[in-house]
Amino acid sequence: AQKITQTQPGMFVQEKEAVTLDCTYDTSDQSYGLFWYKQPSSGEMIFLIYQGSYDEQNATEGRYSLNFQKARKSANLVISASQLGDSAMYFCAMREGRRSSASKIIFGSGTRLSIRP
Amino acid sequence: GAVVSQHPSWVICKSGTSVKIECRSLDFQATTMFWYRQFPKQSLMLMATSNEGSKATYEQGVEKDKFLINHASLTLSTLTVTSAHPEDSSFYICSARISSVIYNEQFFGPGTRLTVL
Q1: Does residue B24 sit at the A interface (CB-CB below 8 Å)?
Q2: How many other C-beta atoms lie within 10 A of the C-beta of residue B22?
Q3: How far is Cα A46 from Cα A61, in angstroms, rounded to an integer?
Q4: What percent of chain A has pLDDT over 90?
Q5: What is the C-alpha to C-alpha distance for residues B15 and A95, in angstroms, rounded to an integer?
Q6: DSSP β-bridge partners for residue B24
Q7: Does the beta-carbon distance from B1 to A45 stay under 8 Å?
Q8: Which residues does B103 contact at the CB level (< 8 Å), separation at least 6?
Q9: Mean of pLDDT over chain B
């Protein structure tokens, strides 16, 4: 069963607008971590933001914020004031058993974000 | 953040040959390293989890005799694609986990693009 679902294969957004990338997840663990990564055309995976399942507040990192709704099992990424350099693939990911050395990160299918000037 | 390197960054080989990809954590010790595979326009699929000094744990459907993983030290893991075929052409990404109890962070290498002719 798919554990990370990203329903938006592609999105176009006007520069300077805010954009929300959707992510839902499925897990039976109480302890887990949620991540967002950016992958530009070069292929490198750039870590953006992390949310722990026990974190009470939504994570924020500069222009990135994570809208964490635990009951709905969603972890949407919000990018404020989008820039042309934000054009890339974005992956939502999850690690179950947050502090277990055996835990592994699995990825959603990704959303290709294109920023229009 | 911590730096993970991969070598080579790209490789072209003939069908039937073996290719070795190195993954190094440059400024930290990684007890656990992960190998992912990414086909064009697709997500990262976890192939195996590699722990220093022990055998790798392969994901379902990944041939361990085809993809040999060695994690001989806390800073180096290697993936060898044996008897490569065109269908093995892909983007291979390694990831290394900092062995910190608190953060348990994971960093990704820049990837290796393998093309098998």
Answers
A1: no
A2: 17
A3: 13
A4: 80
A5: 36
A6: B5, B76
A7: no
A8: none
A9: 91
